[in-house]
């Protein structure tokens, strides 16, 4: 009986995570075509979920709430990206959206350093498209853990680049 109750509660645990994503995942799928020349979304089984087999940028599978600059299968992060991650920056919507609109500018703000630089040269100029791409990546990524869901809810109260 306890297993059945726990299984029945799983959808309720996932709901708060998606409540914090404000973009349109279907629109984000279309916009992601602009990202696929550098990024792939490849799951743990090695299946390409989105994009092509491009490896210029990091794999975006599971990017939601991942610590910035921390994917161990990618070794071309800028020093600033790694530092931002070490200081607590995670890929929540509040960091993802401004970063993809102005990578270097966002890192400079997060690190409070004019010397900070991002390695990504492409920008999504339209803010709504940035929200949509984030929603799309969340929708095709792995299910968020209970801890991640709690963080997502807490992150809605923190400023971009949070001090966590």
UniProtKB/TrEMBL annotation:
Name of the protein described by the UniProt record: Cytochrome c
Q: Which UniProt keywords apply?
A: Electron transport, Heme, Iron, Metal-binding, Signal, Transport
- Annotated Cytochrome c domain ranges read 23-141
Position of the signal peptide: 1-19
Query: InterPro entries, per this entry?
Result: Cyt_c-like_dom, Cyt_c-like_dom_sf, Cyt_c_1A/1B
Q: Name one GO molecular function term.
A: metal ion binding
Organism, as annotated: Hasllibacter halocynthiae
Report whether Heme shows up as a keyword of the record: yes
Please give the PROSITE patterns that the UniProt record associates with this protein. Answer: CYTC
Q: Which PANTHER family match?
A: CYTOCHROME C (PTHR11961)
A Pfam family (short name) is Cytochrom_C
